[in-house]
Specification:
Number of strands: 4
Family: Belongs to the amino acid/polyamine transporter 2 family. Amino acid/auxin permease (AAAP) (TC 2.A.18.2) subfamily.
Structural class: mainly alpha
Order of helices and strands: HHHHHEEHHHHHHHHHEEHHH
InterPro entries: AA_transpt_TM
Protein name: Amino acid transporter transmembrane domain-containing protein
Organism: Canavalia gladiata
Number of helices: 17
Helix content: 55-70%
GO molecular function, one term: symporter activity
Length: about 500
């Protein structure tokens, strides 16, 4: 009877390998016919070799670590938001400004740890993988909440890609304006249109958007993370030099002063928008699951992701506090909305140029971090809807010089290029830096960073209603909702004001 048990075990392992290969072929078109034919399955040794190439879900083995995940997070978090923090703190002052920064930091880290445990369900270590934020919500909450999550997530991702197009073009324009000011003097207006630079940025993104998925983006995220450190450090150094040099601005405990800098209503609206700017600066929860899906399974993904989140958020908070507070100390209540492109600094012009080039390069990578979930979602839905379409599913092998073989998919080329072009056109119509970022942050912070992680944690832990933990989690939830509504209101008011003053062919400062 022992041989029957061995045969049964062997057939089971054969079936497992076949299913793994078929799944991977269907999902990623990775295996060619010749490769399938060359895969030997007669001996136990070959089963272990095949298992080394796949994870438990049949996909190619993930190789990401907490280091690469930290790089993805830093790339996503330290972005254009850091440039507006000096202005945000100027609206709230020395007391409320840093306090709000630390509060958002703590809330974001807390909810990211809750979200990291939801990557697998029902068990956070051995359960079924969920590949996107929406799938996590569907597995844990289901129904209408899944639909609302998808709507909130993808609207936010679209908004971020539009915002990054705006910011990158402003930084490119700032390089030319910096050279113009150096040549003609600071009194020259040096008006330059953003539109050609948005087109340049879009052309770069059309090329990079052909990178198939997140797993191929590690190198770009590392480059972008280095760039973010570079321009943040330059802004930090220039602010410090200005403070040490004695030419710092007028500051106060409560920020801009009513009757001196602004009216009472302007003070309120600006504070609302400042909260939205800070919320945007911590907006990365909507790509956390996609980042976690790049991690290898040992150590458990949730532990590695919590470590990466801690390192990423601690690093970015340190930079945010330093850049925001030193920027406020340098410029005072007159802090510009973007302290590198708003020309709080003019000299040394070459260093300003380098910092803005770093911003543009960073946003090239950050755009891809946020746009890949959109690409993946549309392409998965299209393949499920039209499984027989060669246009959507067909892969054509190309040999790219210096890069090796590349699988070209015609649908991917057309769809992704169209998306980049559409976001660039929207950016041309709404080239307002601070208010646009504030609106994105206000709309996305509560549902994606707070509400869904907390609701999933409550359900997974089967928490009793009106218990102490349940009560304070609900209070946190409602407080963050009120904050988001307030900051969104301020952002809409700011956008309406900007539209009245908009001059379409002049540089946005």
């Amino acid at each position: 009877m022992g041989w029957k048990k061995d045969v049964k075990l062997l057939s089971g392992r054969v079936h497992k390998v076949i299913v793994q290969c078929k799944t991977e072929r269907d999902r990623a078109n990775h295996w060619s016919v010749s490769e399938m034919n060359n895969m030997h399955i007669e001996t136990p040794e070959n089963f272990s070799d095949a298992g080394k190439n796949f994870d438990d879900d049949g996909r190619i083995k993930r190789t990401g670590t907490w280091v690469t995940a930290s790089a993805h997070i830093i790339t996503a978090v330290i972005g254009s938001g850091v440039l507006s923090l000096a202005w945000a703190i100027a609206q709230m002052g020395w007391v409320a400004g840093p306090a709000v920064l630390f509060a958002f930091s703590c809330i974001t880290y807390f909810t990211s740890t809750l979200l990291a445990d939801c990557y697998r369900s029902p068990d956070s270590v051995h359960g079924k993988r969920n590949y996107t934020y929406s799938e996590v919500v569907k597995s844990n909450l289901g129904g209408r909440k899944f639909q609302l999550c998808g709507l909130a997530q993808y609207m936010n991702l679209v908004g971020v890609t539009v915002g990054y197009t705006i910011t990158a073009s402003i930084s490119m324009v700032a390089v030319k304006r910096s050279n113009c000011f150096h040549k003609h003097g600071h009194q020259d207006k040096c008006y330059i249109s953003n539109t050609p630079f948005m087109i340049i940025f879009a052309c770069i993104q059309i090329g990079l958007s052909q990178i198939p998925n997140f797993h191929k983006l590690s190198w770009l995220s590392i480059v972008a993370a280095v760039m973010s450190f570079a321009y943040s450090s330059i802004g930090l150094g220039l602010s410090l030099a200005k403070v040490v040099g004695g030419s710092h601005g007028r500051t106060s405990l409560t920020g801009v002063q009513v009757g001196v800098d602004v009216t009472a209503s302007e003070k309120v609206w600006r504070m609302f928008r400042a909260i939205g700017d800070i919320a945007f600066a911590y907006a990365f929860s909507n790509v956390l699951i996609e980042i976690q899906d790049t991690l290898k399974s040992s150590p458990p993904e949730n532990k590695a992701m919590k470590r990466a989140s801690l390192i990423g958020i601690m690093t970015t908070t340190l930079f945010y506090v330093l850049c925001g507070c030193l920027g406020y100390a340098a410029f005072g209540n007159d802090a510009p909305g973007n302290f590198l492109t708003g020309f709080g600094f003019y000299e040394p012009f070459w260093l300003i140029d380098f910092a803005n080039v770093c911003i543009a390069v960073h946003l090239v990578g950050a755009y891809q971090v946020f746009v890949q979930p959109i690409f993946g979602f549309v392409e998965r839905c299209s393949k499920e809807r039209w499984p027989e379409s060669n246009f959507i599913n067909g892969e054509h092998a190309l040999n790219v010089p210096l890069c090796g073989s590349y699988n070209l998919n015609l649908f991917r080329v057309v769809w992704r290029s169209s998306y980049v072009i559409i976001t660039a056109v929207i950016a041309m119509l709404l080239p307002f830096f601070n208010d646009f970022l504030s609106l994105i942050g206000a709309l996305s912070f509560w549902p994606l960073t707070v509400y869904f992680p907390i609701e999933m944690y409550i359900k997974r832990s089967k928490m009793q209603k009106f218990s102490f933990t349940w009560t304070w989690l609900k209070i946190l939830n409602w407080v963050c909702l009120i904050i988001s509504i307030i900051s969104a209101t301020g952002s809409i008011q700011g956008l309406a004001s900007d539209l009245k003053k908009y001059k379409p062919f002049q540089a946005q400062q």
